[in-house]
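During the reporting period the student researcher (J.K.) took over the structure-prediction task from the postdoctoral fellow and processed the backlog of single-chain submissions. One of the processed entries is reproduced below for the supervisory committee.
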Amino acid sequence: MKPVIAQDPETLKQVVASEVAALRTAARRDAGVRPDPAPTAPGPQDGETARACPCGAAGGPGHACADQDGHDPWACVCATLPAIPVSAALLVPVRDEDGRTGDFTVRAGNHVRSAQWLDAPDRHIGRRLLEVQPGAAAGGLIEALAEVLTTGRALHDHAVDYTEQRGDGLHRARLLYDAASCGDQVLVTWRPARNRTEMLSLDAQYIASMGWGTWDLLSGDTTWSEGLHAIFRTEEGRALSLVELCDAVLLDDVPRFGKMLTALLEGEEPAGAEVRFSVLGEIRTLHLVGHPVIARDGLPWALHLIARDLTAQVHSRQRLAATRRQREELRKEAAAERLVATALREALLPTHSAELAELGLSVAAAYLPAESDAVGGDWYKCRRLPDGRILLAIGDACGHGLGAVARMAQQRHALAGLAHAPGTHAGQLTTWLNELVCGDDAAETATGIIGHIDGERHFRWACAGHPAPLLLRDGRASELDTSHRGPLFGLLPGHEFATATVPLRRGDLLLLYTDGMVERRGEDIGQGIETLRRVLVSCAGLGAQEAMDRLMAAFTPEQNEDDTCLEDDTCLVAVRLD
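J.K. obtained the following structure tokens:
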């Protein structure tokens, strides 16, 4: 029957405890039984020292070293040294006149090096320890070995950061020393704190953010690598049991972890799983891979788990997903803004009226964005007024997007209303529009040209910081005089704008444009005007729309090979007198 997967930590712990108990019961049936040891004679009382043979065995009439005449008891000790897999030596204390041990003499040693740059002990027989290991004094080794002789207590895992200056430079190794008294001498072994394989293992765990652990299901012993201790922020020697591990799993991930543990306890090898744990208040995501250790009876007696910490990658994925969502939202907002702005522009910048053609004027207008989906504050107006004059205006509200479109709409509608006041001229309209922009705290500066073409075909116009119109006449293009030019809209309240009058002739083509047409980064605006003027000269003899088409071809990136691409939005109005 398919096992029920635990959904909460308490149930999962009960499942683990039940499975482990069943495994122990099954293992106990076939396990060998060791009888309890028989009582032994009492050892020496506190304060007493048992007499021992120098070879390390307890003294007594039954000991072989004591039974043979002329036997050298130290031969037993020295003969065992080559069998020890770590560096080992028998040391004889060197005492001063007060009986204090200040050094040792190497009596015997084996041929095992604890580091490549250190000599084997058997190369220093008969020499002083501080002579062959000069760094031992700084590490407190001499004092520790002397205490072994004094107290009779063995020394275990005494760590020494052994540093030595040699001909090829400084060397350091962390060595662990074990020692025991052997009569009046000391048997000492030392080994590196970590061998090369252990160091490579630690490096791999650090680089890959991983670790591993073994849970002995029969004895209950748990062994963790340093990498796993680092992941769970536990001290070395304080490994979590399977039950404690269940308590650390997030509630939503208990079924996934429970399915994995259940499979392992049944002797299967489940697929890897991502499980989240709460570690000191932080959520850590681990990829777990498990392996059961199967006995000959087919039952698992231990579990291996390898864990890789994916927390950093998960956080990166979450940040990336958030960035993508934010980018998508911004894209949708921008698309919606472009849609609204484009609709506004199409509503606010209609094509010229057919009624202008009845007055002998052909008009063409165009809006060229610097980017295909950009919208700005450029605008124009060309229409017949009730008094018979033709209003011709162009402007540029600062900025891009809906804000600029809104300002453009405000200025254009204001001009449309002001232009219907009877008897007004271009200077008055420009002055009134300037006051309107200056009085709006939310408004920004803008430029513009406002003018009228009357029945006698005179163009009377005012300028608020805007580029001068170009007049194409008899195959030559020139700028209109701008000596009467005033400040930008919104810059100087109360300013009275002046006007200038230009008589127009049949065949003339008047071009009004915004500054995006002539401004280039790193280039004087005069150069941009000259480039536009040359292109306009090539339009001699063309109608208003044909001339506009040629201008657009010259300044549209995909249609020209010259360095005349636009860097800002621009608006153009061409009026030809037929």
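The committee noted the following: Residues 43-52, 55-67, 558-564 have pLDDT under 50 and may be disordered.
J.K. will present the remaining backlog at the next meeting.
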